[in-house]
Amino acid sequence: MLTRRNFILSMGVLAGSSAAAACPLPAMDGGEHAVMMLNANCGDGQTPNVFEPAILHVNVGDSVTFVPTDAGHNSASKRGMIPEGASPWNGALDERLRVTFDVPGIYGHICLPHYEWGMVGLIVVGNDLSNLNAVKKIRHPGAARKTFRALLKELEVA
Ligand SMILES: [Cu+2]
After folding, report:
1. Which range of residues forms the domain containing residue 150?
2. FRET pair for 105, CA 20 to 30 Å: which of 7, 116, 125, 148?
3. What GO molecular function annotation could you give as one example from this UniProt entry (predicted)?
């Protein structure tokens, strides 16, 4: 029987477990990767609206699933920030979207509602940085400029 007290207890357990479970990346098999869409950074719990990981390295032919761990986000490839011949994607809000990467190179992607607030990420396929200069030329509004610059710098020194 669900008494009021039990109801409150079970709500507490649910809230606690979902907060703890939000951070570790979902387990994926070889060739399958996940990027979580989060309201706050796992590490510091502060930086709002992030892709986790912000930079993901995958092999040619691998797939990435954008996971709507938190609500209100999407992933869309940024025009001019994907390799020539690659297909763009544009996930709906809260959509769990799986994208397969057959063309090597750097892919920049953004969350449309939080683009200006710096919710952006990079996926590098096949360790290929040959479109780096093209990617760096793209202009961004607000905090996206700073975040993309920081992520691209991380790529260059890695
Ligand atoms: Cu977002």
Report:
1. 28-157
2. 116
3. electron transfer activity
Lowest mean pLDDT, pick from 4-13, 70-79, 83-92, 101-110: 4-13
Number of domains in the chain: 1
Going from the Cα of 35 to the center of ligand 1, the distance in angstroms, rounded, reads 12
Ligand 1 is an ion; residues with CB less than 5 A from it: 49, 73, 111, 114, 119
The whole-angstrom separation of Cα 97 and Cα 49 is: 18
Report how far ligand 1's centroid is from the alpha carbon of 24 (Å).
19
Name every residue whose Cβ is closer than 8 Å to that of residue 53 and which is 6 or more positions away in sequence: 25, 35, 121
Could you tell me if residue 15 is inside a domain? no
